[in-house]
Each structure stands twice: as structure tokens, then as C-alpha cells.
# Entry
Amino acid sequence: MSLVDLPGAFDTSRIVKLRHQLASHPLMTTESLAALALRVDPRNVRLHDGERDLSGNMSELLISDPTRQSLRNALDNLDRSKAFIQVSNVRSDLLYAPLVEAFIDEVVRYLPGQQRELVHRDAAVYLASPESMTPFHVDQEETFLCHIRGPKTLWVWSHLDRSVLSERALETFFREGTLREIVYRPEVQPRAKELELQPGDAVFMPTGAPHAAMTGADVTVSFSVLFNTPGSMETVETFRANHLLRRLGLNPPPVGHSPMQDALKRHGMVALRRLVELATGRKLEAYSFL
Ligand SMILES: [Fe+2]
# Structure
């Protein structure tokens, strides 16, 4: 049985709503996912317990809890508080890794040949209280948000709509990894695609597509499968190169304006990493922050 219903030709540049088959999987019960949250390295669990609105900054709101005490409280009171719990690096868990790999392997078969050597694979879990908000944000990865429990309204904006987020805001996000400049403005709301999610619904979101969510009258659970194709990582690299060029006082053309210029900028990033390696004697990973 397949884990996700993909159309024949899967286009990673489009937001698309699909169906998945994870909701009835034994690892997807709220109890199993709560146990995962309590078992993984506490640095991989971030939470916020309290009111949040669309304009909240997830980088600042979500905190890690080394003692796991606030996490236990949030999990115990999930149905009557306003908590949001994010478990990342799920692929590092021995119990969940095979399921994450199986899902991604299934998706890879539908990608164009040159996009199948994925740069990054992982998954994250989101547990949220009833009537609680996930503020406006973007992610670096391509995301399959698989909805598992409860009703959720998801708003997604096009990753190409610069009236929602500017080139500069995305450059800062991809270079620094913070949401400092990813700011929600009420006037962008009509430009969102609004999707009502029930268990079994999945939404694919391209890298850099802004999104936010509001849960309905029940605890909600979502399982996001995350990856980067070579193509999405090239986009990330080009934003990072533009950020550096802007820091040098230049005014680079937007990402996607000229594929040849974008490729040159990425070559520049590779050269810069080699230079840092030579200067520091330290080996850097491909696509590491500079
Ligand atoms: Fe997200």
C-alpha cells in the first residue's frame, strides 16, 4: 500500500493538496508521538504554551526545555491549554526512521531524474491544542504536511509572490536561518490559499512558501516529511549568495532572474567555502552556512 497518493507527474514548484495513508499508522497515535517527544534529545523539541497570533515570531516564541518538565505539562494539558509542540530531526529516531525513509523513497520515484539525489531528508511532528495558532513562517525544506488528527485550517502563500515576502527577507532567512524578517502583514491575507485539513489530507509546499495554521476544536497532530531536492538547495544557495553580495554593497538581480547568473553565484559560494577551509583548516559541509 502506498503512503501518499501522488499524481503521475509531481511538480515540486506547486502547492498541492493530496491524500496520505499515515493517519492510521500505529506510530501516528498521539500517545506514540508524545512518547517520541519525551524520548528524543530535548534540543530537538521546542514548544510554546500560551496565546499566539499570526504575526508571532516562531524563532523567538518556541523554546527548548532541557528538563522536559514544561514539555510534560504541555503534553498532559494539550486538550485544555494553548500549547504548540514541535519535534524535529525525527529521522534520528530508530523507531520512526524507517517510516520517514519509506515515505521519502516513495516520493523520490515521482521526481524528475536529476532531482532524485536528495540533499536532505527528515521529518517533524507538530502537536497543538484546540483553537491555537501556528504563526506565519517559512521553512528551508520542501514539505509534505501530512495531517493526522483534528481539524486544521492552513494558509499557504506562493513561494514566488514577492508582494508577500521580499527578496531581502528571504535572503536573510536562508542565510541566517532566523525568521527575523519573515513578517506577517494583514494585507497579504487575501493572497493566501486557504485549505481545510482533516486526518488523511496532505499538502505539499515548495521551499520558501510562507504558511500559517489555526487548529479547530480538538487537539491536532501533523507529521511533516521534509526534504531538499538539488533544485531547492540551489535556490537556497542563490538566496545566500545574494545576501552576501548585498552585504558587499551590491544590488544582485533576484533569484531566478538569470539562471546563468544564479549558477555563477553558487559557484562563488563553493569557492568561498574552499577559501574558508584553507584559511581555517576546518572541513565545511556542502551547503553549510557561511
Ligand atoms: Fe512550517
About this structure: The mean pLDDT is 95. The longest strand covers residues 120-128. The pocket of fe (ii) ion is lined by residues 137, 139, 211 (CB under 6 Å).
